[in-house]
Structures
1.
Amino acid sequence: MGYIAGTLFGWESMARYANIVVEPPGPRARKVVEQDRRYIATTTKTSPVVAESASGGVVRDVDGNDLLDFASGIAVMNVGHSHPRVVKAVQEQAERLFHFAGTDFYYSAQVDLARRLASSVPGQCERKVFFSNSGTESIEAAMKLVRWNTGRERFIAFLGAFHGRTLGSLSLTASRPVQQERFFPTVPGAVHVPYAYCYRCAYGMEPSSCGAHCARVIEEVYFQYNVPPEEVAAIFLEPVQGEGGYIFPPKQFIKDMAAICRRHGILLVDDEVQAGMGRTGRMWAIEHFDVAPDILCTAKALGSGLPIAATIFPARLDMGHGAHSNTFGGNLLACASATATLDVIEEEGLIERAASLGEHLHRRLKELAELHEIIGDVRGLGLMQAIELVKDRETKEHAVMERESVITHAYKRGLILLPAGRSAIRLIPPLTVDKDFLDEGVEILDAALREVRK
Ligand SMILES: Cc1ncc(COP(=O)(O)O)c(C=O)c1O
């Protein structure tokens, strides 16, 4: 059965991608969910999608339903599921050599990947790469790197930030209290300041007249009352806040962060774990802001599903022998996958594609906002788009339960979505999809929003 389009487009069309054969979650999915509850640690699950296989942007669940993937495995499958080029590279590598501990021995796959990553980061300096396996580890490495080099102990991070959940990165994370509860004390030294969340300005100001107040307070307030700048090792910055709600700051804010760093000998750490790898229509999201970071952390989409992360840093900051290392970082299979991923992004022009498809999706979401009062804000860059749901456009009260219902109704119609922040929904399909795929996703979202309004 194909999903019949709603009325947003004034005509009805049979879906080309979503195909619901059993109302999800079907019997097989329910069984897996039940077993998962029994044997798997409680984490952050949001929806009972039980995947069996996937190709491009379409996920087939265990009951035979085809679902449009607007979550990309949390911004991982930028080149689409099971891209043949990535599959082939991993298969060929698996036949040659799985693992050889690149921290203690040598292989060229790591060097070649590091060279490409080092030269991709904006800025003139020579760079090196530390490979690890997850976003949080890439941040841990950056925290150690900046302390080791500066001898300074404090960090500045932002309210709404998400940098990971191991105890070091958790000390920088501030997007939900549940992430912190019962884990204190984390690593000392982190100071959180408001981010440029202009839709909900922490200071109640308007971007047109605030004079970049949220950037200015760092020097004019924090550095005057509480935080000696000469003790700050780094500012940890997501150029687009991800888990915190898909928040896109004005250019000036990011430029001001770089200027503050320059003035006080502070290092700027750019967390591109979610926004990087072409997702926003640039290789790195920070390129939208004409800023060159000192250190750039990436993970997620780098390995197209194999765990790999990279902390890319100026060669002059390299630490001494034995200061930091691991077992699996830059594992051969992960390097093969990451190298093929970079090839696909380049050869298929996925960065440009993300930019133009992103404009299309953004336009469609704006149209949706004209029909649905509950959409308080539409924001995004490239194929990193979001809608924020509110009970009332004046008060901007978060529509928390409504957001959950929209995600559930969308899933039942064949669209996989993820929440972000308190009441936003992120739309992050693979960069390889086409306009019809995006339109179909928007049609289903429209139907789900109508359902919630009933
Ligand atoms: C911006 C950002 N940094 C770090 C992380 C942590 O990455 P991981 O879950 O791979 O540890 C995430 C995960 O969502 C993220 O979005």
2.
Amino acid sequence: MSWFADLLGPFRGFAVTARQLRKERVTRKYPAEKRVKPERFHGRHVLNRYADGMEKCIGCELCAGVCPASCIYVRGADNPVDAPVSPGERFGFVYEINMLRCIFCAMCVEACPTEAITMTHLFEMSVTDRDDAIYTKSELLVDPDGTPNHPQPESPLIDLNELRLGDGWMEATSPAGRAEYTDVVAWSPSARKVNQPSESGGDETVDAAREGDTDG
Ligand code: SF4
Ligand code: SF4
């Protein structure tokens, strides 16, 4: 009978397909119809500037240190005294993210002390060469007028406006970017912790830890 079962095998498969044909489709017509992404969607990163065009990145390498995928490479350099690139002593001289390794966890955003790195809604980053998946500073850093950069042109797959959407982008670049957000405090870290009260018991925990240090 095994030959008979073998004979029926393909027809059983076709029966599964036929049953599915009658069911409502759950897939969408991507990219013609795109889903609206959640406000805190973790897409491609951008490096932001201050309103006066100064770069926010100070080359501290905290983002690289916290990245669980080790996909950020940063090198800081001293700011030229006569033409500083960022406020403070140093700036991000080299900045690279290997998007093939990134898991889009936003830990780099959380760690950044200057809100220099934030994430946008763009995730269409297909490449045919692995080297092209390494985004350099020239691609990550927004222009002085707040315009974000992308290594690939606008296409049915790539909506560059999505680089202007996302957690942290608006306030980070608003004065020189989107006029409607000028002077509107809209920025908050990825976990939306700004303006939230302290967690219950937080102060007591800190106090107890300090007392423990003193006792020790
Ligand atoms: S999103 Fe996560 S994995 Fe990606 S660069 Fe930032 S810290 Fe690394
Ligand atoms: S992006 Fe932020 S955390 Fe990373 S090097 Fe620049 S200032 Fe430091």
